[in-house]
Structure formats: C-alpha cells, structure tokens
C-alpha cells in the first residue's frame, strides 16, 4: 500500500476509535481480561520483564500485563483511546504502566531494549502487518517474546472475501484479516519462531458486535452488514457461524438477533 493510502487508513482508524472510544473501551477492558491473561501466560510474562502493548487501545493487554511485569508501555496513536488507558491505569493503581502516543509501524524504542512486545486485534487495521512484526522483533532482545491476538480467517479466498466485505461495512478502518499461512509468513520473515498458536472462538451477538462499532439497527451499515450475514447462514460462507436467536427469546414485533462467532488466534513467538 502506498504512503498516501496508508495515511488515509491511519486517519480512518483514528476517527473510528475516537468516535467509539467510550463504548469500545468499556467493552475491551471488561470482556477481554481472560484473553489478555491467557496471552500473558503464553509469552511467559514475568516480574523482571520490560514490555510494550502496541496499538493498546484502552489498555486491553497492558492493564493485565502490568500485574505480571516490571513495567509496560501502552502505545497507541489515537489520543482519545490512549487517554482511556491512562485513566484506567490510574483507577487500577498501576504505577508501572506508562502511556505513549506513537505508531505501531515505527516504535519509539531502541533495538533490543525490551523483553516482550504484544498487540491485540490491531493487525487487521494496519496496511502492513509484516512491518509491525518486524518492529516488534526489533525492539525485543535475543530470546525476547512476541505475542499477538487477532482475527483469523480461513484460507479459502471466497470465504475470506465475504468475511472481509462484512467486516469492512461494519468498520471502515478494517484493512485485512489474516489466515494462518499469512501469520506463519510474517512471523518467520521477522525472525520469530512461533512457540504456541491457539485458535479460539469468541461467541457474541450481531447487535452487540455492531453496537461496539457505533451502529444501531436503523443505520445503513447495520442493515447492509446484516443482510450479508444472513445470506451466509446456509453454508457459513463468511465463517461467522451465524444463527438466528431462538424464537422464544425474541420480543413480540422485534426482529431476532443473530448469534455469531468471531474466530481469533493467539500466537506466541521467540526471537531467533
């Protein structure tokens, strides 16, 4: 992607997460605690480690890692969401969590200056995820650890295309979800050896998924994404495993919600 398009994407990401900072921030901190703790275990976070959570959002990983490591930087380039991370750290009494405004594709840390670099649900918003992995590898020392939690899509190009269309309608800042072969390639190219990889489904409702992105049922984006989601039900053509809410749960006169699953992957790696 050229520099102009990359800058446009970054501007879109910043606008999106500024607009939805509160609703997304509340969700991520409240509902991703278990995910953050699991990634901390996979990268063997310990009391002498120096860490960074890049594209940290409201502190999704950093708030939990701070309980395990010597200190952690939370880095993000959206001031509104970074302010939430700073507020959350103060509320939770975490004096070893430091918030920094910065770009995940150009980390403001020296070579081999850290022990752990992690990120969650950020790579699909970035035009060049391989560059991010190279930066993560650069800033950790020999045998340093890198951890990623993000969306996983199937290798099948037809399924990937429909999945991408739905994701893009929901969130214009969505760049591209990665398949397992993509992750394997960018980790290897960054000089990282994968030590653990786990695929887990994250069940949720379609309404809540759209709500976190800032949409309600009457919005065009909601309607268009829902139509595509429903069209994928027969053959699970977008890999969201959607099904209608049972009839006995639906309020009279209301359209049923959709139960769905976001497939995610945890990857832990060691610098060669």
In summary, what is this structure?
Helices cover 40% and strands 24% of the residues.
How would you explain this protein's 3D organization?
It is a single chain. By secondary structure, this protein is α/β, with parallel strands linked by helices. It has 2 domains: 3-153 and 172-202 and 263-271, Rossmann fold, CATH 3.40.50; 204-259, no CATH class. Helices cover 40% and strands 24% of the residues. The protein has 10 helices and 8 strands. The chain has helices at 3-19, 21-31, 33-42, 62-65, 79-91, 129-139, 157-170, 180-189, 206-212, 220-231; strands spanning 50-54, 71-76, 97-101, 114-120, 140-151, 192-205, 243-244, 258-271. Strands 1, 2, 3, 4, 5, 6, 7 and 8 form an 8-stranded mixed sheet that branches. Strand 2, helix 5 and strand 3 form a beta-alpha-beta unit. Helix 7 (157-170) packs antiparallel against helix 10. The longest helix is centred in the N-terminal third of the chain and has 17 residues, at 3-19. The radius of gyration is 19 Å and the shape is globular. It starts with a helix and ends with a strand.
């Amino acid at each position: 992607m050229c520099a102009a398009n990359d800058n446009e994407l970054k501007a879109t990401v910043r606008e999106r997460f500024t607009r939805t900072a509160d609703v997304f921030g509340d969700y991520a901190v409240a509902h991703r605690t278990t995910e953050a703790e699991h990634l901390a275990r996979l990268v063997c976070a310990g009391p002498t480690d120096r860490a960074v959570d890049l594209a940290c959002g409201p502190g999704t990983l950093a708030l939990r890692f701070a309980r395990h490591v010597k200190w952690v930087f939370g880095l993000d380039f959206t001031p509104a969401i970074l302010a939430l991370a700073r507020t959350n750290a103060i509320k939770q009494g975490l004096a070893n969590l430091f918030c920094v405004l910065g770009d995940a594709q150009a980390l403001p840390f020296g070579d081999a200056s850290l022990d752990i670099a992690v990120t969650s649900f950020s790579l699909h918003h970035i035009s060049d995820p391989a560059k991010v992995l190279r930066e993560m590898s650069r800033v950790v020392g020999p045998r340093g650890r890198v951890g990623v939690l993000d969306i996983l899509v199937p290798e099948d190009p037809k399924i990937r295309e429909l999945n991408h269309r739905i994701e893009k309608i929901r969130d214009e800042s969505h760049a591209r979800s990665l398949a397992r072969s993509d992750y394997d390639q960018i980790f290897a190219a960054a000089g990282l050896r994968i030590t653990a990889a786990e695929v887990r489904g994250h069940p949720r409702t379609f309404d809540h998924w759209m709500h976190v992105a800032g949409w309600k049922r009457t919005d065009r984006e909601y309607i268009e994404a829902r139509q595509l989601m429903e069209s994928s039900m027969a053959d699970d053509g977008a890999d969201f495993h959607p099904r209608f809410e049972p009839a006995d749960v639906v309020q009279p006169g209301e359209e049923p919600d959709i139960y769905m699953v976001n497939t995610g992957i945890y990857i832990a790696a060691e610098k060669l």
